[in-house]
Structures are given as C-alpha cells and as structure tokens.
Amino acid sequence: MKPRIIVCGLERTGYKIFCLLRQQGASVVGIHHQPIPKEEAIVVGDLQAAATLQAAGIESAQALVLANSDDALNLAILIQARVLNPRIRIINRLFNANLGDRLDHTLPDHVSMSVSGLAAPVFYFAALGNRAIGQLKLFNQTWPIQEEYIHENHPWRGRLLSDLWDDRARMLIYYLPVQGEIDLVCAVSSGRQLQVGDRLIVGTQPSIRTMRKSAISKLLKVLTNLRQFRQHGQSLMVVTLVLLVTIFTATLTYICVDLNTSIIDALYFSVGMITGAGGKEEVVETAPDSIKVFTAFMMLIGAGIIGICYALLNDFVLGTRFKQFWDAARVPQRHHYIVCGLGGIGVQVVQQFHASGHEVVVIERDPNNRFLNKVRGLGIPVIQGDASLPETLQAANLKSASALLIVTSNDAVNLEIALNAKTLTPSIPAIVRYEHPDFAHMAQQVFEFEAVLSPAELAAPAFAAAALGGRILGNGITADSLWVALATLITPSHPFCGQRVKEAAMQSDFVPLYIETNCQTIHGWDLLRTYLSAGDVLYLTMPANRLDQLWRAVPSQIMVS
C-alpha cells in the first residue's frame, strides 16, 4: 500500500510538490490557509492547528512535507505534527541550513531540504553551458543531469546503448524509447540502438579546475586596476592635493620673505604650523606683521584641511571605501562569471564557482547583506551597487565575462538587469531567475535568454521524491515521469539480496549506477554481473512510482547519506 502523504503549505513550491505526488499516483492530501479552485483533496485552515492536521489524517499519514517559505511556521507545524504522530516522516523546507542539520541529527525520520540548495547547482551548470535539468550526487561530487532527445542530427543517433554504458565519466540514468516499453538494462543487454524520438537521461561528471592564481599575479591585477581608485578614493585624492598645495604655498611664501631661510626650515615650519605640531617658530618671529597674519590664516585653513583629510582617510581605510576599492581592483579582466544578487541561491552559486576554480564577481546592492563577509572571506570581489545600471555592469567587466547570472529575489529587477546586460553585450550568456515556473518558460521564449530558471520548479521534484521514501541523491522528470536516485543498503532481508544486479534491475525497473563493496566501487559491465550481498551499498535510479519495490524492505535499509 502506497504511503499517505500530506503537503502543508500550497504556495508556488508546495503546490508543485502536491501536483507531482498526485501525478505519480501517491495518496496525497494538501493543507492550505485558503481554498484553491478546482482542488478537492485540500484541507483549509490554520496550518499549525491540531484540528487542521487531524482533518488531513495526520495520525495515519506516513509522510508530511512542510513546504512553507517561513522557517518559524514550519517548525511550529513540525512540533504539532510530532505530538499527534511521533512516527511520521517529515520533509522540512528550511532556509537555515545549520538549523536543518541539527534537526536531522536530533529528530528521527526528519529530512531538511532547501530550495536554494537544490536550485543553485542547476544555475551553476547552466552558466557553464550544460542544459541541466537537475543534479545527482555521486562519488562525492554533484553531477549535472541533462536530457538527450535523439533527433535526426543527434551524434548518438544509431549508436548502441551498450557503447555508452561503460563510461565512468558519464552515467546513463533513465531511458524512454519512442516505441514500446523497455527498461535501460534490458536495452543495454540486448544491443538496442538509439532511434529518433528516444529520450535518454545522462549524468556527466563535472570537471574541477585546480589552477589558482598566485599572490604575485593577484597583486599585479590590483596594480593594473589602480584606475578604480579614482572612483572610490577621488574625494581623498582631492583633499590630499589641496593639503599639499597649501604646504607648498606657505613654504614658498616664507622663502620669498626671508631669503636667508632655508627650504628645509621653511618646509618644516609650514608642516608643523598647518598640522599643529609646531617647530622652527623663529622663521616668523622677525617677519613683518603681514606674514604673521598670513601664518594665522594658514593655521586656520590648515586645521580645517587636516580635519577633513583625517576624516576621509579613516572612512576610506576603516570604513567600506577601502573594501570597495580593493574589490573593484581585483575584478578579473576576462573569462569570469558575474553573479547579481547575494541571496540564498546567489551565495551557493558563488561558492560552487569558487570551489571549482572559476573566477567570479558578485554585484550586491545591500551593504548590510548577511553573506558579504562570507563571500569576501573567500577572496571573491564584491561590487556594491545597482546591477541594473550600465556603469555597475561595466565595472564588473561584462564584455569579457563568460556568463552573467541574475538571481535576485525580484523578478522584475532580474529582467531589467538581463535586458540591460544584453543591450551592452548581446553575446553574453544570461542565466535569469524567475519565480513563476510557467512564466519562466515564456520569458525565455520572449526574450531569448540562454536560460530562465524557476527555483520552485527545480526543487519540487526533490521534495516529492523525498516524500516517497529514502534520502534522495538526485531526481528528474522525463515525459512527466518522475525518477529518483538513491542509495540502498543491502541487508539479509533486503528484496535484492542474493540476486544478480542485472536480473534485479530488469525485474524491478531500476538502473544500477554503481556498488560500494569491500572498500571498492563496481561500475559498468562488471556491475551487471555482480551478485548483491549483505553489506553492499547499491546506488540506483528508478521511477518514483516504483519505489514500492523498496518499501518491502525495512525503512532503515534506505541509506541516509
């Protein structure tokens, strides 16, 4: 019997999860604070009230998906749900990743997930040029998942699936033939050829750039970009110049009045007089009264200039000006990636670029952004300004950048930035965030951006897959069919124990990826010939509506990674 699932909070992400679960044939009930037209399987009421949860059948439900964007509300519902049903499995949407980790370690059957964490890798892969539809965690790496539609001119047309099977850098994940029904393992074993109209889901191992620029090259970059100082230190330069002119004028005056006064003595007295330090007063002791009046006047002017100079210097060094100058001076000249918006998705995209060895620049408008210090701590330059302004984009060297990612939380601002960037540099690849899934597809068609991605659409399949069972390692949708990737521990009572991988895969319609056994991994043709034994960890993908093949196992057999 398939598990009864409750989805609490049917906003954009929650409703997408609700529809996906229902599409896969799951017994699903929604809870929302207001009615939704043409939806009957929905309980309307206060989301955290016990009566509302009981009306949705919380006592007999196996899984609860908390899909609200408010962490505090999700926590309140979690506590109420665990009081009513201590054994219920909870998939909790949390923005606070640290809190999510603590809850996962503290509460049994609790899985915290983040929309930003699930969507960010897809934005990253899209910027690199991959037509990613999702992500898959294999071999301690995040692999981009893409769909290959075999058309007339596709390079794989007519190739044997067996030729693509034994490649550790490419994982065949799912197969949908244009004619008939056949699983991937059967198609590989029988020598099936790819035909026009076939769909193949493929995971590609990401490449990591290990080259890092030395400290000398970074210093040279700063020196070559000293023109940025004019923008961030112009006022300091002007006041400093006025101070030097004042000192020069006073020194020249004292020399002209008394030719016996040396240049050094005149300069020493001028600096001491203007700064208030004093010294060499004999320079003006015997001077005419007009020179003494001039000296008093210069003292007043000097005090004002010195005060302003110190104030600007403190603001530049101790305030944000120096950081702005330092960031602007370190902006790469070419082949870098620009990220506009340092929110939940933006900071994770930036971290992925940095971890992969790519140069990245951040444009953020809010000087009090919570992630600024974190990003600067990685040595990543941050330009504080409005990314919709052409001069801000030009300061980030837009024309020579590899791609532009616009991931602020405002759809209108994202479109404005993208359109301005395309006006300045039509060839720049633009990856745009747009919250509404349907409008995201239409915006890509209308404006012809390289990619317009909706975080809700990218994250919803992972929530739906996690609600169906197990800790999900990856997921995707092909022809409205949801598939999931997971790791399962083979125990003596496991339904696959003792079976050869090939027969188990054909019988249960799953695709084996690899096996971890005896401190080694088995992949390719050896994987299909391997017999599963207790202690093995099998990584596999399978349709979400076939996960009941694993429900026959003890729940603890589903790996928690």
Brief overview:
The protein is an alpha/beta fold and 561 residues long.
Description:
It is elongated and about 110 Å long. Mean pLDDT is 83; it is low at 551-561. 38% of the residues are buried. The protein is 43% helix and 20% strand. It starts with a strand and ends in a 10-residue tail after the last helix. With 561 residues, it is an alpha/beta fold. It has a six-stranded parallel beta sheet with strand order 3-2-1-4-5-6, sandwiched between helices.
Percent range for helical residues? 40-55%
* Low-pLDDT ranges: 551-561
Q: What gyration radius follows from the Cα positions, in whole Å? A: 32 Å
Largest pleated sheet: 6 strands, parallel
First-last Cα distance: 26 Å
Structural class by SSE content:
alpha/beta
Give the strand order of the largest sheet, numbering strands 1, 2, ... along the chain: 3-2-1-4-5-6
The number of helical segments is: 23
Kindly estimate the percentage of residues that lie in beta strands according to DSSP: 15-25%
Please tell me the overall pLDDT. Answer: 83
Write down the overall geometry: elongated
Q: Strand tally, please?
A: 21
